[in-house]
Write a structure and sequence with these properties.
- The complex is a heterodimer of chains A (about 240) and B (about 160).
- Chain A has about 240 residues and is an alpha/beta fold.
- Helices cover about 35% and strands about 15% of the residues of chain A.
- Chain A has one domain (about 10-235): Spore Coat Polysaccharide Biosynthesis Protein SpsA, Chain A (Alpha-Beta Complex).
- A seven-stranded mixed beta sheet of chain A has the order 3-2-1-4-6-5-7, with helices on both faces.
- In chain A, α5 packs parallel to α7 and α7 (about 180-190) runs parallel beside α8.
- Chain A starts with 7 loop residues before the first strand and ends in a 9-residue tail after the last helix.
- The model of chain A has no long low-confidence stretch (mean pLDDT about 90).
- Chain B is mainly alpha-helical.
- Chain B has two domains: about 1-85, no CATH class; about 85-160.
- The radius of gyration of chain B is 31 Å and the shape is elongated.
- Chain B starts with 7 loop residues before the first helix and ends in an 18-residue tail after the last helix.
- The chains are: A alpha/beta (about 240), B mainly alpha (about 160).
- The interface of A and B includes residues 34, 58 and 70 of A.
Chain lengths: ~240, ~160
């Protein structure tokens, strides 16, 4: 008789992460945690999917690149359809330490929070961010608070644990294709979900990796985030249909 | 010439009442006809959906009417406060193009969402199929009941 399925699913969105995905999945294995691992291959053009499967992860592959947010959402939809109670998400580039997963899940399992974010900036962790990005982060922190949202030190952290109601809510059409940020946090807060942060340390971005918001994106992203946050601010609370 | 002696209203009336050139009207009519024909050809070949044609048909027919009944353009010119009929035509053409562009941006946004949903469904269904195929193979090999759903490439990692 097969063992009961774990209650938790670890979702790892991945786009061209053949260099690191095997190691990331192995590190999760070594923690001995009772959770399933799902790699969402977002239209990678390298061996990401094959390597993830070889190292023992379940893999769902987009036919073409949709974006980080869409890949996360596919993971959420998988979790809802397969009946998982909790979702943890982490990045595929090796920046996140799976040892933090139990601490992320604990408040969610205890019913004390619906979203737990692993934050680089609650305690001094030595994580360095360029001055422009830091200014952007501080600015959007303030925007979130001005709009009635919580004070979140690290709103773009990809290391998070979510309860099933949050995962179900994030399966809806509002969820961004590209980068869930303060717009999603504000929406979740307005929905009544409890959001907490715990301090974590993260490795620096891998070398030779193109920054997420390079070039014109550095101009487009703040504009898009302001507009999206404005939309979240205006969105009325909706009632989730019972399962 | 002293600007103070110029009768601006008379100048404007002169500009509006200028007789339209026959060659311009013929050119406008010919272009509108060609445009209408192009729309019909594209629809016939299946490259343009019928639902996207009404606005272009109305524009082509409207421009034809204005080419024939030029007084309508003069009326519009006076109404909007323009000086020449050509300014009026350019102004309304610009407003029309802006509106159409915004409309297509809205439609594109809707289509992007649909594409995303489809791609996600395809990915999830493929994963389900792979999982079922893997379970079927396990049963055929006489293994114990297979563990819970696996995606591409194997069992869930622990």
């Amino acid at each position: 008789m097969s063992p009961p399925r774990p209650q938790s699913l670890l979702v790892i969105p991945a786009f061209n992460e053949a260099r690191s995905i095997g190691d990331v999945v192995d590190r999760v294995h070594r923690t001995g945690l009772d959770l399933d691992v799902l790699v969402v291959n977002d239209g990678s053009r390298d061996e990401t999917a094959r390597l993830a499967a070889e190292h023992g992860a379940s893999v769902v592959s987009h036919p073409f690149n949709l974006g980080y947010g869409a890949a996360l959402q596919t993971g959420y939809k998988y979790a809802v359809r397969q009946g998982y109670d909790y979702v943890v998400q982490m990045d595929a580039d090796g920046q996140h330490d799976p040892a933090y997963i139990p601490r992320l899940l604990e408040p969610v399992r205890a019913g004390e929070a619906d979203v737990v974010i692993g934050s680089r900036f609650i305690e001094a962790s030595g994580y360095e961010m360029g001055s422009a990005r830091t200014a952007g982060r501080v600015f959007f922190q303030r925007v979130l608070v001005w709009c009635g949202g919580p004070h979140i030190a690290d709103p773009t952290s990809g290391l998070q644990a979510l309860s099933r109601p949050v995962v179900r809510f994030c399966c809806s059409d509002f969820y961004p294709f590209d980068f869930p940020d303060i717009d999603v946090i504000l929406l979740l807060h307005r929905q009544g979900f409890r959001i907490r942060e715990i301090p974590v340390t993260m490795a620096p971005s891998p070398p030779m990796r193109k920054p997420m918001h390079a070039g014109l994106r550095a101009v487009y992203y703040p504009y898009k985030m302001l507009l999206s946050t404005f939309r979240s601010w205006l969105t009325p609370r909706v009632k989730l249909l019972p399962e | 010439m002293n600007p103070g002696t110029i009768d601006v209203d008379a100048l404007r009336r002169l500009a509006i009442e200028q007789p339209e050139s026959l060659s311009t009207r013929i050119l406008a009519l010919a272009l509108c006809t060609a445009f209408l024909v192009a729309v019909l050809v594209l629809v016939r070949r299946g490259r343009l959906r019928e639902e996207y044609t009404p606005i272009w048909t109305i524009v082509a027919l409207g421009t034809m009417v204005l080419s024939i009944w030029f007084d309508a353009v003069r009326l519009l010119t006076r109404a909007v406060g323009a000086w020449t009929p050509s300014s009026t035509l350019f102004f309304f053409a610009l407003v029309f193009l802006l509106t159409v562009s915004l409309n297509y941006a809205v439609r594109l946004s809707g289509l992007s969402l649909q594409v995303k949903l489809l791609a996600q469904e395809v990915a999830l269904l493929r994963s389900q199929l792979a999982s079922r195929a893997s379970r079927t193979l396990s049963h055929m090999d006489g293994d114990d009941e297979a563990p819970g759903d696996a995606g591409e490439g194997g069992a869930p990692a622990r």
